[in-house]
Amino acid sequence: MSHIIRAIFESLYQSSDGETARNIEAGPSVTDVPHNVQGATSNKRAPLEASLTPELSEIKDDFNEEYYILPANDGHTALLFPSTFLSEQADGTVIFGETRVDDDDPRERLDAVVQIYDILSGHDTFHPRIVKYLGTTNSGYRLERLSHSSIGLDLQCPYSHHNDVVLALYQRWALQMLSALDHLHQKNIFLNNVGNNLWLRVDYSIAIANMTSAGCTEPLIPGRKSPPMVLESSWAADADDPGSVKNDLFDWASWMFALMTGNKDPLLMHMGIEGHVTSGTEDFDKHISFCHDVSLGNFDAWPQIDEKLLGSVILKAWRGEYESAGQAMQEAKDAIRACGHELSKEHGDEIVTYDWQQEFEVTTIDRWGPKLRLRQADSNQR
């Protein structure tokens, strides 16, 4: 437990100066094309509908190594299936392998996830910050295919490198995530894995792809498993709890703090330590103690970053001072407007100051996979 942030943030920022983002997603770095995902792309390990075209490699993804994502051969959708998938026969029969004795079968959770998607689709039209669910398949379920799923970041963090357009992008993502959370919470659904597996639309807005850890109170879905966490807030869900507003907002604050600061650990920042602590040292034991205090709700020495980095909103979310994501979103909007940005009147979670497709581009020349970066013409001017 050497980090307060989940495994998403362990390798989030990695470069010569330690400030460049590699990945905005949780779990293993999907931009590295994990070995298991590569294994799933052979003819024997992919659903019959999956496309194995190498040029579509950036559509591949994995959700905590329990589920795989591959593009479908219809050209517009993506297929989710459990990691235990072995093969699909011509008649649609799917063969799964056995899980290890101590592991849960990821197939069992899919029924609950589908119920949650059905609740969402039963209320109204889909929310643009949530990847659209398109029904079940023989081996799992189908999602809309976005422009980019497995993508890293090649952007300097706003905490140590002033760049107006990068800061505005992260502020925009902050609003979009809060908008999605507010939408889910109004339907008594809790995400429980904020920042995990975010896909990008063509305008580089975010959309939540991973609902496999979500919980719901009406009805309470049995068998839902809480996500693996390095540090649990005092509102964290357990196996019998669907989650809560405050826990999702705590996770949102941790995710946003990591983006803004280049993966600085807030507890180590409080301790005055840059980087990491080594197991067996006094600082390590102190860090563990602070993590325990946070899980009990007994820690309140959170670092506060600048207002333009949404410092006050992050701090209040960590402290559990918001009763709704909408309340946090309103205060985030006020902070963003104070930076001089204009917000869309039609979409309250959209900053219209910039043409995002003119400011950013996705490059595929990096050996680790596609990355989002500033357009070359602009990067030296900001």
Tell me, briefly, the overall form: globular
| Residue share in helix | 25-40%
| Rg, Å, rounded | 20 Å
Query: Largest sheet, if any?
Result: 5 strands, antiparallel
Strand order of the largest sheet: 1-2-3-7-6
Low-pLDDT regions = 1-43, 223-232
Strand content: 5-15%
CATH superfamily (homologous) name of the largest domain: Transferase(Phosphotransferase) domain 1
> Which CATH architecture of the largest domain is right?
Orthogonal Bundle
Taking the alpha carbons of the first and last residues, their distance comes to 37 Å
What would your notes on this structure say?
There is one protein chain. The protein has helices at about 35-40, 105-125, 165-185, 245-260, 265-270, 280-295, 310-320, 325-340, 355-360, 375-380; strands at about 60-65, 65-70, 75-80, 85-90, 95, 135, 140-145, 150-155, 190, 200, 205-210, 215, 360-365, 370-375. The chain is about 30% helix and about 15% strand. It contains 10 helices and 14 strands. The longest helix is centred in the middle third of the chain and has 22 residues, at about 165-185. Strands 1-2-3-7-6 form a 5-stranded antiparallel β-sheet, with helices on one face. It has a 3-stranded mixed β-sheet with strand order 8-14-13. The protein has a two-stranded antiparallel ribbon with strand order 4-5. The chain is an alpha+beta fold. Helix 4 (about 245-260) packs antiparallel against helix 7 (about 310-320). The protein has 2 domains: about 5-145, no CATH class; about 160-375, Transferase(Phosphotransferase), domain 1 (Orthogonal Bundle).
